[in-house]
Amino acid sequence: MKNRLPKLSTLFFIAFLLVGTADARKRQPPGGRLGIVVDERLSALRATPELSGILLRRMSRGILVAITAAKTSREGVVFYKVKVSRRVSGWVQRDAVVAPSRPGDDARLLRLIRASEDFDLVARARIFLDYFRLSALRPEALMLYSLAAEKLASDLSHDATRRLDEAEMLAGGAPVFSYFMNYSGLDRYNRQGITFVFDSRHKKFRYDGEGWRELVHRYPNSPQSTEARRRLAGSALSR
Fold first, then answer.
1. Which listed site, 160, 184, 192, 197, has its alpha carbon 20 to 30 Å from 175?
2. DSSP secondary structure code for residue 40 in this structure
3. How far apart are the C-alpha atoms of 211 and 189, rounded to whole Å?
4. Least confident of 22-31, 195-204, 207-216
C-alpha cells in the first residue's frame, strides 16, 4: 500500500492541474478588455509584436485573454498585447482573437464560422453564442450551429454503431440505449452545449433541437425562424 501512495498522489495532482487549466479557459485575466482566441492557427503568443518574435506559447481556441494594447508590425500585421494570466503576457496576431467590444468582430467571427466544418464550426459558433449575445448576427450563428449539430447526429450514429459491439453490450447487462448515450464520441460536443437524444427504434442519434427552439422563441421574426419551425415540426421536437 505504501508504494502506491505516491502514484495516487501524483494522479490527484495531475487531475487538479487539468481541472485548473479548464477553469482558467473561462476566466478573463484582470485588466484590459475581453478577447477570445478563435483561430489557433494564428494564436502564437510572442515576446514582441512581430511574426519573427520569440514564441512564448501556443494558445488554444476558447482561451480568454485581456487585451491591453495594440501595435502594427513593420509587415503591416496588427498585434494585440494580451494577458493570459496574472503572470503570463505577450503579443498575439489580432486575427487570432475576437473582442466582443470591438465593432465588426461579430461579423469577422461569423465569416470564420461559415468557412469552418464539423467540430471547428461548432466550437467557433459556441464562442459566438456565448460572447456576442446582443449581436444582430446571432440568429445566423445559431442556425449554423444547429445545422452542424443535426449533421453530426448522423455521423455519430454511424461511428457509434460501428464501434459498439452488440454482443458485448448484451453481455454487459445494461440497457442498450445507455451504451449509445455514454458513447465517448459525444463528449466534446456535449462540452460545446450540444445534446443528442437516441432513437432506440432506428438506433440513431438525433439533435435535441434546442437551437431551433431558441430561434423560434427568441427570434420569431428572423428569416431563420421559419426554417427552425419546419425542422422542429418534422422531427416532433417542439415543446
1. 192
2. G
3. 14
4. 22-31
Residues of 83-122 as b/e, b for ≥16 C-beta within 10 angstroms? bbeeeebbbbbbbbbbbbeeeebbeebbebbeebeeebbb
Position 34 pLDDT exceeds 90: yes
What's the grid cell of residue 137? 448576427
d(CA 90, CA 94): 12
Q: What is the mean pLDDT of residues 54-80?
A: 96
CA distance 4 to 6: 6
DSSP 8-state symbol, 165? -
Amino acid at 26: K
State the sign of the Cα–Cα–Cα–Cα dihedral 9, 10, 15, 16.
Answer: positive
Res 90 pLDDT > 80: yes
Distance (Å, rounded) from C-alpha 190 to C-alpha 208?
Answer: 12
Q: 59: which DSSP letter?
A: P
Distance CA 24, CA 39 (A): 18
pLDDT tens sequence across 71-87: 999 999 999 999 999 89
Among the ranges given (9-13, 126-130, 177-181, 216-220), the one the predictor scored with the smallest mean pLDDT: 9-13
pLDDT at residue 225 greater than cutoff 50? yes
Distance (Å, whole) CA 233 – CA 228: 9
CATH number of the structural domain 29-98: 2.30.30.170
Pairing mode of beta strands 97-98, 33-37: antiparallel
Please give the single-letter amino acid code of residue 11.
L
Each domain of the chain, given as residue ranges in start order, spans 29-98, 143-235
